[in-house]
């Protein structure tokens, strides 16, 4: 028996640096080269990838030897811990299935609209500015609670928010957001849910036209045809409305203009600054809540506060919770589905809302409206496909 001290199987474990060519005599571990000396390449005790192949016989001999040694290497690798000090890194990040989150988003989005309509009409609580301010105030509080207790708001760590950026970008976008919410909620006082959803189909057209004004979008012949298709569909939907109210119509059209301007301004002012809906809400909600609250004394006064207890805290808190849950669901939806899937989900949601409006609120729908809305929906899908 040799008096030499046997070197370990792996060169990376050779702390003392045994002489090159020391035979392997580790018991219980199969050596691919038998009694042949190990070969290492490189300097200073390190080995390259080629050296590793030579070490296990992967780059030497003919084709059969390569196959044989590869099998032996796999056998040795199962018995020896190659990197015991390095933790295993998991690279596969699980995302929520679209089949799971899309129905949740559709349900919450529909619930917010129907819940608000129920408050305004059935419970006789016609205070859209207060409801909007209340929702935004709860959203501002909710995002800060999530920031302290969960990882849903970790996107804020990647945003460098300065005073200049806040005043030049967040504030004007917040004003547009506030105007959109106030006008949209006011429209529900006089218009049916079904008619409002039909008018919202004009939003892609407004975005396209505003983008063209700011030279962010080039109007092609195909896009012009899509604009005409959606516009014709919305016009037919408005023409077929049995209980047309000019005030509500102007409020909803203005809401579409405000919302479209907000989306375009986000593209212009926040170029390269990616924010998911929750992070956006974290910045916009306080601004919008304060702006809306400034209108309260001149529009609705103290009446919303006096009627609050009649409605009951349970209904009011649950109403705000559903609205906030929609924003949380939107974060997972964006990560789980593509743009076209979102558009199709939105189309399905609108159809569901129109059907629910007919069933629960007795909103009448004419055949002209159905035809016009079908044209507008077809134009929406075509627009999303063309913009890809």
Automatic annotation (TrEMBL):
InterPro entries: Sugar_P_trans_dom, TPT_transporter. The keyword Transmembrane helix applies. It is a multi-pass membrane protein. PANTHER family: SOLUTE CARRIER FAMILY 35 (PTHR11132). It comes from Kwoniella europaea PYCC6329. This is Sugar phosphate transporter domain-containing protein. The keyword Transmembrane helix applies. It is found in: Membrane. Keywords: Membrane, Transmembrane, Transmembrane helix. Its main location: membrane. GO terms for cellular component: membrane. It comes from the Eukaryota. Residues 100-383 form the Sugar phosphate transporter domain.
